[in-house]
Amino acid sequence: MKTLFDTNVILDVLLDREPFSSDASLLLSKVEQSEIIGFICATTVTTIHYLATKALGPQAASHHIKSLLSLFVIAPVNRVVLENAASSRFADFEDAVLHEAACHAGAKYIVTRDIADFKSSKLPVFEPKEFINAMESLKNND
Fold first, then answer.
1. Over the stretch 56-94, which tens digit does the pLDDT of each residue have?
2. Is this prediction's pTM over 0.85?
3. 118 phi and psi, to 5 degrees?
4. Given this model, what pLDDT does residue 15 score?
5. Cβ contacts of residue 104 below 8 Å, gap of 6+?
């Protein structure tokens, strides 16, 4: 199950943002157990480093980045991804970049807490709890 995780889902785990962290943690554990092939966008890495440094300090931020890099496939952001995002129907450019990176990297699903921002998605988009509930039936489709 090639699944790209939005930055907000990763931050829910790293910053223990209740009530969202439980479902997000469960999904990340499924990535760790290879039940899900987890992707994050290259821009997610830089955003998380910046926010984690402010919230937790540089040493903790560096540790988290290393963990993410060992756990996730990185969906690259290149000129094609940016051009496609710029010409997409997404209202939010950052979400458009994430979506296009997911498509170009071969992800089949996107997990986010901002479903409303992904109305123009070519890929199925799920909130974390919804994705957990749908995983069994999605496995049969992969």
1. 899 999 999 999 999 999 999 999 999 999 999 999 999
2. yes
3. -115, 30
4. 80
5. 75, 76, 78, 80, 81, 84
In DSSP terms, which residues pair with 92 in a beta bridge?
none
Q: What sections of 57-92 are H helices per DSSP?
A: 58-71, 79-86
Domains of the chain: residue spans and CATH:
2-136 (3.40.50.1010)
Report the candidate in 112, 116, 119, 64 with the shortest Cα–Cα distance to residue 88: 119
Amino acid, single-letter form, for residue 61: A
Please identify which residue in the block is written with the tokens 């988290």.
Answer: 64
Q: Which residue has the tokens 């540790």?
A: 63
User: Residue 110 in 3-state DSSP?
Assistant: strand
Q: What is the pLDDT of residues 14-29, one digit of tens each?
A: 888 889 999 999 999 9
- Rounded CA separation 135/140 (Å): 9
Question: Do 89 and 117 touch, CB atoms closer than 8 A?
Answer: no
Angle at alpha carbon of residue 34, lines to 63 and 26, rounded to 5°: 70
Radius of gyration (Cα) for the chain, nearest Å?
14
